[in-house]
Amino acid sequence: MSRIGRALAARVAEGLDQRYRLAGSVRKETSHVFPKHHSFFWGEFALYSFIVLLLSGTYLGLFFVPDTTEVVYAGPYLPAQGLHMSRAYESALALSFEVRGGLFIRQIHHWAALLFVASIVLHMFRNFFTGSFRRPREATWVGGVALLALAILEGYAGYSMLDDLLSGLGVRILSGLLLSVPVAGTWLHWIVFGGEFDGQIWISRFFLGHVFLIPALLIALIAVHVGLVWYQKHTHFPGPGARESNVVGERAVPGFGTNTVANGICVVAVIGLLAGVFQINPVFLWGPYTPAASSTFIQPDWYAGFLIGGLRLFPRWDVHLGPYTVPAPFWPGLVLPLVMFALLAAYPFLEQRFMHDRAQHQLLQRPRDNPVRTAIGAMGITFYLVLFASGATDAISAAFDIPFEVLVWAGRVGLLVLPPLAYQVTKRVCVGLQRADRDVLARGVRTGTLQQRPGGVFVELRRPPGGVDAQGRPIPLVYGGARVDRALTTSGRAVPDEPEEQR
Predict the structure, then answer these.
(1) What's the chain's Rg over C-alpha atoms?
(2) How many CA atoms lie within 13 A of 222 on its CB side?
């Protein structure tokens, strides 16, 4: 920067500070401390993916036509010429073949959407298994659950309004689920579709929700979420100097600032690489949606796979309530996801109630230090994975030549057996890891070296991390939740690992 530029910037900064007293606030906020741990990157990945979504979606919105009016295609894509389709699908084809860079931006948008949802899920995994949702951050956790639900709804609305064969089948499933709601189902269907399926205005309503309503809610929730994290400060892992009253890490400027900018550049680069190399959602291959057409071996985006799995596994149990019938899809298609998200949002309060823990927490926990919570998380993930795998039973059946009915019954049995099994196994593993950590702190790190005692018995030498006392016995250390270093060092004295009764 030239001397004139530096002088002008200094005068502008001085003028702003004289009027608004910004220097003190800027100095305070740039000294905000952020913990240094790779698991904190997932939230940043989600944020930068959302920014890519906003920018690419704005470009796509300039060319997409949310209209169900039927037209005859006469564009450059030869396999579709002469086909009857909606103007929405025609504009999607135009975006892919006629708009400069349109196909690349479409794929950027879709890959960014998948990464956005995946980053939120991984970010919530980190928060759950480390206990960062504990008091006073319950509201931050609930906001994260709401963000996940809105992100899934936003993704569904986005690929549904293209009106290709794949998205049309998904919209037809939504229509059936809305009609399955007792009493209010017809009214809910009318609110979304404006009449019977598929109606004339549903694409425009999906467009308004996808482009304006849901993004506005996402922006507001993200702003509140980031604001709460900044105001309440970050949680951090136990370690040297870490206490409940401080945050150990690096300052916002320059340390965290340069790292987060580098993360953002990497996220954009990875999304661009995926969009340029790997094809995704080729709507021109599916063709336009027609009610009489169907296809096999088609799968929704990964975050909706568990819904398809639930619909396939749930038995045909219709409930008759007087003149009303509650069809079977109502339970796995609507009730199940609502219950799953409700339990996810309520978990911090349930843990407070059953664990009688209402203290303020700034230090995180290692997953092994709370075996019950970790086991519950493993049980929930197993439950989800069984549903997810069951959503692809048709593809699995064709690929491995397994009868479809066998896979359905395997999924039903697995849904009842595998989650409790995962709970028990995970809990036992956590308890075993706790014992291993405490054993190292009490008796020392194993060296693999054996020493023969006078009686001919061989004992292993250990190197106590806390040293030895005057009698040569290990000085036990108290486990504080930090990672126990099992790396062998040359410092310190190695002592025999004698049985407890002999020490």
Answers:
(1) 29
(2) 20
Contact 305, 392 (CB under 8 A): yes
Contact 496, 472 (CB under 8 A): no
| Residue 308 · residue 411 · CB < 8 Å | no
Cα dihedral: 260, 262, 263, 268 (round 10): 130
- Give the sign of the dihedral formed by CA 431, CA 435, CA 438, CA 444: negative
Give the whole-angstrom CA distance, residue 201 versus residue 195. 9
Q: Which of 345, 382, 61 is nearest to 215 (CA)?
A: 61
CA distance 394 to 404: 7
CB-CB neighbours of 86 under 10 Å: 25
Cα 388 to Cα 150, 308, 374, 415, 429: the distances in Å are: 19, 8, 21, 11, 25
Of 136, 141, 92, 106, nearest to 120 by C-alpha is 141
Res 494: pLDDT = 74
Residue with tokens 């021109």: 284
Peptide bond into 420 cis (omega under 30): no
Q: Degrees (nearest 5) of the Cα angle 485, 491, 492?
A: 90
Reduced to 3 states (helix: H, G, I; strand: E, B; else coil), residue 210 is: helix
Distance CA 283, CA 17 (A): 54
The single residue listed with the structure tokens 């569904």 is 156
**For residue 495, what is the enclosing H or E element?**
strand 495-496
> How far is residue 98 from each of residues 63, 90, 93, 102, 260, measured CA to CA in Å?
10, 11, 8, 7, 36
How many angstroms separate the CA atoms of 373 and 379, rounded?
10
Sheet containing 458-463, strands listed edge to edge, beginning at the edge strand earlier in sequence? 445-452, 458-463, 495-496
Binned average pLDDT, 10 residues per bin, the chain of 503 residues = 75 74 68 79 94 97 95 95 95 95 96 97 96 94 97 94 91 93 91 86 94 97 93 84 79 82 94 96 92 77 93 91 87 96 97 91 92 97 96 91 94 97 98 91 83 81 80 80 72 64 48
Under the phi-then-psi rule, with left for phi > 0, alpha for psi from -120 to 50, and beta for the rest, what region is 2? Answer: beta
The DSSP symbol for 448 reads E
Residue identified by tokens 């509650």 is 326
What amino acid is encoded at 289 in this protein?
Y
